[in-house]
Every structure is written in structure tokens, then in C-alpha cells.
Amino acid sequence: MKIRLLLADDHQIVLKGISFFLGLQPDFEIVGEAHNGQEAVEMATSLKPDIVLMDLNMPVMDGIEASKLITERHPEVKVLVLTSFSDSSHIVPALQTGAIGYMLKEVEPDQLVEAIRSAYKGNVQLHPEISNAILSQLSPNGSEAKKLPDIEVAKALTRRELEVLEQLTKGLSNKEIAQTLVVAEKTVKTHVSSILSKLNLSDRTQAALFAVQLFQSAE
């Protein structure tokens, strides 16, 4: 079964280039091309793609508003942002719409392909350069954000804690993680607290960002 993709970008050269390259992948099918956010929303409704590859700066309706409408109306459709904006003022609002990931257009083609495949499986995708930008924006009380710890500290985590950490990248609640791993919800809560303590992080968002870097480095 192929991954059905809807591409949304107002730059024709970029759109056609991405469409051509992704169309060469044996497990991808380009089902539509939208030239603005409004078209993306309408085509997501009519075509029901698996993934919408969404630019942000588009006419009529921008990518953030389009992403919000798509994820609200069609939760089964995953939105993966692909843009040139690397600042937190764009990254955080885009992810808050429910988008499953945020990639920069400077990404290597092969990395984009793998990001799409991983997003299709439900895994959060973040371009390697933007994690600390997100942490800065999400830092509590506007204080200076803490840098993500070195991935070497993951050695302190138990096998079960690593399994819980991986589930955090999917945005799952404790209850959902418990159902996935077939353990008690209270057990998951204990593991999450332990993970935050061992990694010296303050919340689940930071833990999820660390996990994305950790599991990407292991690929």
C-alpha cells in the first residue's frame, strides 16, 4: 500500500521539484498539489491523503491556519510542515496545530523521504536544527531554555523507560502509552517522572524532543 501525499506550496518550481522527486519513490503516490492553504484544506477533504506536506507562507490562507483546519476536521490526515522558516515564532505555532513534524527545505532529499515514511507510522519528525529553538519558545516563565542533554545520558534509562520515551514522541497520553505497552497507567506515570529526573528535563515536551534526537541518531 502506497503513502498518499498531498503537496501544498505556492512556489511552482519548488512544488514541481518536490512532486517529481517524491513521485519516484515506489511507496509514494502524489494525489494532489495545492497552491495555497485554502486549496490544501479543500483537497485534504476531498482526497483524504495520508500526509499533507505543508508550506507555511502561502496566499489566501497560510500553512498554519490550513494545518489547524485539516487536523481538526480530519485527524486521520497527518500534516508534515516543510518550510524555510527556522525560527520558533513559526515552529511552535505550526506544531501546536497538531502537525506531526516540522522540516526545513534545506533537508537532504533522502532525509525528507525517511521523515515522510516515519511520520506515516505516527512518529514525530523534527529537523535536527530546530529542537533548541522550540525549547527556547516553550521554556516556562520566559526563562532561558535549557539545552537538550547529550544523548549519552540515555544510557541511564532502563529498557522500559526507553520504550515509554519512544511513545512520548507520538504525543500519547499516559493512558494511551499504558494501553500500547500493556502496563498500568500509574506505572507509566512513574516511568515518565523517572525519565524527566534522569535526563534533568522539566516536562514531556522536552523529553519528546530529546527522544526525537536520540532515535534519529540511532537510525
UniProtKB/TrEMBL annotation:
One Pfam family linked to the record: GerE
Alphabetized UniProt keyword annotations: DNA-binding, Phosphoprotein, Transcription, Transcription regulation
Keyword Iron: no
Species in which this protein is naturally found: Cohnella terricola
Domain Response regulatory: 4-120
Protein name, as recorded: Response regulator transcription factor
Domain HTH luxR-type: 150-215
SMART domains (alphabetical): HTH_LUXR, REC
Listed PANTHER family: TWO-COMPONENT RESPONSE REGULATOR
UniProt GO BP: phosphorelay signal transduction system; regulation of DNA-templated transcription
Residues the record lists as 4-aspartylphosphate modifications: 55
Gene Ontology molecular function: DNA binding
